[in-house]
Design brief:
CATH superfamily of the largest domain: PAS domain
Strand order of the largest sheet: 2-1-5-4-3
Shape: elongated
Number of strands: 12
Radius of gyration: 27 Å
CATH architecture of the largest domain: 2-Layer Sandwich
Distance between the termini: 64 Å
Structural class: alpha+beta
CATH class of the largest domain: Alpha Beta
Number of domains: 2
Number of helices: 16
Order of helices and strands: HHEEHHEHHEEHEEHEEHEEHHEHHHHH
Largest sheet: 5 strands, antiparallel
Strand content: 15-25%
Length: about 375
């Protein structure tokens, strides 16, 4: 196999994998299958010492042993720190200026990994990231013990793929951070008592919090059928679907649809459910979630008392429950100090939460923020729908 065609095949796997939680591991597996050489895609926090390693061709037991102990004596992190990003280094050149302590660590590492049929020397590494105080990462190609050296094709491919390995690692890290933000936001929604569902343009439910699942389980006029939000009355169902589609289009920059408010009749005769549909911005939900589901549906059961404004604000702007409570207090006309007193938090905590609310709502001043919050609260109470 020639270097160019092999590189093109691996590049497809690399960039596809950058968007997946286990994508770097998939690339490491593809490298090992293609070149019959083991490799490691690894990241280490210099602040905590935590190592995130994606292995290809290694015994999984070694991964556990490395995470438990060997990473503490591994000299490669000190050797690559400060080297230019995206450059290819051989094992000999990386350790040429190593201290006696680092060489002792390398000997311990080699002894440990050779028990699993591999060796770290000689090897080749691409330095992926040494910028910033908290992260060092590299892509390291090793060899099995019965191999005299790393194959020349593997070394040639490292030179070709080096800039792409850097880009893919950075992209993966950014998307991983976005996935973590999305998970935190969904956890915050799940903690709210108010039922909330996140849906796509066809009203397919991508997420529903515990309150929504409990409500759907009642079978009283509002449910999820074949994965879609469903209400018993056909006319309301069509109007709700149109509002959801418009809200999703707005969240994607394709429309000016604002969603709307709807009353959903209940066969039990209990007061109708009140639904509020709103576009969901990528800044609120995270780009991954917003790309597949761009509308929030807040559900109110009047028989359970008035809706909690903070629940609406949490869904609309991606606020945590604590941030939403502060925002709701500000929306009622309280000053920041008054809101802090009412919520039994310090003024410094209130200022910190207010800064986060500014970031998430896009407001720059408190007056602009209050106008946004009041408009959202009025929309929740006031727009008539189906």
């Amino acid at each position: 196999m020639d270097a160019r065609s092999t590189a093109l095949s691996l590049l497809e796997t690399l960039y596809d994998g950058a968007a997946l939680e286990n994508g770097l591991e998939r690339f490491a597996d593809a490298w090992t299958r293609t070149l019959a050489t083991p490799c490691i895609f690894s990241l280490r926090s210099t602040r905590t010492g935590e190592v995130n390693a994606h292995l290809g061709g290694f015994d999984p037991v070694w991964n556990d042993e490395y995470a438990a102990y060997y990473h503490t004596v591994d000299p490669v992190w000190d050797c690559v720190r400060g080297l230019p990003t995206g450059t290819v280094w051989s094992g000999e050149s990386l350790t040429r200026s190593a201290t006696d302590t680092q060489l002792e660590g390398l000997a311990i590492i080699c002894d440990g990994v050779e028990r699993h049929g591999m060796t770290f020397g000689p090897n080749h590494a691409v330095v992926l990231e040494t910028e910033g105080p908290e992260l060092v990462s590299c892509f390291l190609v090793s060899r099995f013990v019965d191999m005299p050296d790393v194959p020349p094709l593997a070394v040639e491919l490292l030179d070709i793929l080096a800039p792409h390995l850097v880009n893919a690692r950075r992209l993966w890290q950014q998307l991983e951070a976005a996935r973590a933000r999305e998970a935190r936001w969904l956890a915050a929604l799940d903690a709210l008592a108010t039922p909330i569902a996140i849906v796509d343009e066809r009203a397919r439910v991508a997420f529903a919090n515990r309150g929504a699942h409990a409500l759907f389980g009642q079978g009283d006029g509002l449910d999820v059928r074949d994965g879609e939000l469903w209400c018993a009355d056909g006319r309301t169902r069509r109007a709700l679907g149109a509002a959801i589609a418009g809200a999703v289009a707005t969240s994607r920059g394709e429309s000016l649809g604002a969603g709307g408010s709807f009353r959903v009749a209940r066969p039990s005769g209990a007061p109708a459910f009140e639904l509020f549909v709103s576009p969901l911005a990528a800044a609120t939900a995270g780009r991954a979630l917003a790309s597949r589901a761009g509308a929030a549906v807040v559900i109110h059961d009047p028989s359970r008392g008035p809706i909690e404004p903070s629940a609406h604000l949490a869904a609309l702007y991606g606020l945590t429950p604590a941030e939403a409570r502060l925002a709701a207090a500000l929306a009622t006309g309280h000053s920041l100090d008054e809101s802090a007193d009412a919520l039994s938090i310090t003024k410094e905590t209130a200022r910190t939460r207010l800064r986060r609310v500014f970031e998430k709502t896009g407001a720059r001043r408190q007056g602009e923020l209050i106008r946004k919050l009041v408009a959202g609260a009025h929309a929740l109470r006031g727009r008539g729908g189906g």
